[in-house]
Amino acid sequence: METILEASKLVKIYGDAGAEGATTAVDGVNLTIKKGEFIAIMGPSGSGKTTLLHMMSGIDTPTSGEVHIAGKELGEMNEGELALFRRKQLGFVFQEFNLLDSLTVKENMLVPMVLEKKSVGEMEEKVKGLSELFGIKEILNKYPFTISGGQQQRTAVSRALVNDPTIIFADEPTGNLDSKSSTVIMECFEKIVAELNTTVVVVTHDVFAASYCRKVVFIKDGKIDSYIVRKGNRKEFLNQIMDNLAVLGGRSHDI
Q1: SS3 letters for the chain?
Q2: What are the pLDDT digits (tens) for 104-157?
Q3: Helices 120-133 and 105-115, interaxial angle, to 10°?
Q4: In what order do the strands lie in the sheet with 90-94?
Q5: pTM higher than 0.85 for the full model?
Q6: Which domains does the chain have, with CATH numbers?
C-alpha cells in the first residue's frame, strides 16, 4: 500500500525546552499511515493526541521532527504554500461543525471548490454525489441553524471531501453528537474509506466511535504506547479498545 503520511521523531514542547515549567506534549512520535487506512488515535486527557493531530495536519509546527504527506515535507513550506497545500490535499472535520450560518448546506459544501476556482459543472456534480452518499440531498437549501447536529456534521464531512483530499483529519468528530448521530457519522467515514479509498485519521476519546476504525493507536505521555488492528467484528474490537484503555490508565471519564 502507498504511504500517505510519514511522521518522524515528532516532538512538541510548550515553553523553553529544559526551562522550569516547560511541557513536552509529544515526545518522539513515529507514525506511518497508508492509503485507505481508517485510524483512531486514543489516550487519556493530556496524552498529546490532539497536539499530534495538529502537527500531522500542519495546524501546528513541531519543535522538532518531520511530517511528510504525499511526498511533501510540511516544514519546508512557507505559510502561503502550507495553506494552499492544506486546502488542496487535506480535509478537516472538527467537533464544532464550523459551518457558516449565513450560507446554505449546499453553499457551505461549495466553499472549498469556489476557492479552487472549479467549474460550475464540476461543483454541481460533486455536491450531487456527496449529498446522495451522505443522505443530505433533501436539506441542501436549508441553513445550518435549521438542521440537526448530525446533519450539520454530515455537511462538514461532505465539505471536507469536495476537493478529493489525500487524507481527512477528524478531531473529536462525534463530541457534540448523540449516539444515533455518532453512528451515522462513523458510518459516513466507513463509507468513504470503503467506496472512495480515502485515508481517515480520527482523534477521539469515544470507544464507540473508535470501534468503527480498522486500527487504533494508543498514546500516553506524548509517546505511542501500543496499537491494535481490528480483525473480528466491531463489538469484539470495542471490547479490545476498552481493555487497552484500562491498561493505559487515565481517569474513568477518559475511558
Answers
A1: CCEEEEEEEEEEEECCCCCCCCEEEEEEEEEEEECCCEEEEECCCCCCHHHHHHHHCCCCCCCEEEEEECCEEHHHCCHHHHHHHHHHHEEEEECCCCCCCCCCHHHHHHHHHHHCCCCHHHHHHHHHHHHHHCCCHHHCCCCHHHCCHHHHHHHHHHHHHCCCCCEEEEECCCCCCCHHHHHHHHHHHHHHHHHHCCEEEEECCCHHHHCCCCEEEEEECCEEEEEEECCCCHHHHHHHHHHHHHHHCCCHHHC
A2: 999 999 999 998 889 999 999 999 999 998 899 999 999 999 999 999 999 999
A3: 130
A4: 90-94, 167-171, 199-203, 38-42, 215-220, 223-229
A5: yes
A6: 3-254 (3.40.50.300)
**Which residue type is seen at 45?**
S
